[in-house]
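>> received
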Amino acid sequence: MKRNLLALAIGAAVLLPLTAQAAPTVYGRLNLSVDYVDVDATGLEPAWVVNSNASRIGVKGNEKLSDDFTAVYKAEWQINGDMAGGGDLGGRERYIGLKHSSLGTIRLGAIDSPLKTSEDMVDAFNDHAVLDMANLGNAVAGVPAVANVSLSGQSRLNNSINYVSPKVLDVFGANITFVPGESAAPCSVPPNGNPGCGNDLANGISAAFSYEDDNLYLSAALDKEIAGKDLIRAVGRYKMDKLVFAGLYQQGETVNAANSDETAFVFSASYEMDKLTFRGELLNNTVETGVATENQTDLIGVGVDYNFSQNTKVYGNLAQVKVDIAGTDTTNMLLGGGIEVRF
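>> returned
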């Protein structure tokens, strides 16, 4: 009997350290679509394209350290679901942090900017390789990438020092990131001749302040010298039972560049009906590229999702993207559908 108790005690002592830290969660998402793209450009025929839409895999978790402190961590990679081999993995968010029960969370790593995350649910084509508001200038169907047509501010910031506040009164929140310059070389034209130059603790700043209850979401956000841009963004979402309206306004400029103003509007709506979700979006983005010269992007599109379960859906998209580059118009039409599985 004593030997059995001794063996039990030794087993418990061995297993106790292994159970003190919760096992990490391995998760992911595969999102693939088949898209028919008709590009209005000389010499180009309509094309069928298989797109991987921000497919990813990651690991995340936390460890309870005391009644007040918890360690948190995450490492995520983008995967090319439509191909295999070289270049298959791309960096996404990865961080380590310390969370306090009442004071908030400090994180260090590569983290989506507060201005980016403030977008909430406004992008009806979020993550799509061509229609996401950050991907409108991506290369597609033989057409090279086009600069200054996608929405600025959709940044994932390396070398981030990030603070996320707890919810105040269960509705108010703050998300603030400092980005050190990490540059020993002096700026060519003091104080900010080159966007991102310098070695200050807060060479770049991104911040978002929000209000959210069951029906209403409001956010005001800014980027200061992030990816060479100064931006302000306002976002709102209102939910009426199964119907959701959302809007975004953004204004900004390129740091230390004349005639570089940017203005963007995004409006979207969605409606849930049983397992179906209908969605639509209007977007306009105007970027000055010189004296009396500008690039303008207009998107109008609709989509529908059929949700088999919480983790699996099929969907269809129909959208037109019109790009005016210094007076030269190109109109792209996209019709496609795909499947997304989360695990």
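>> The mean pLDDT is 88.
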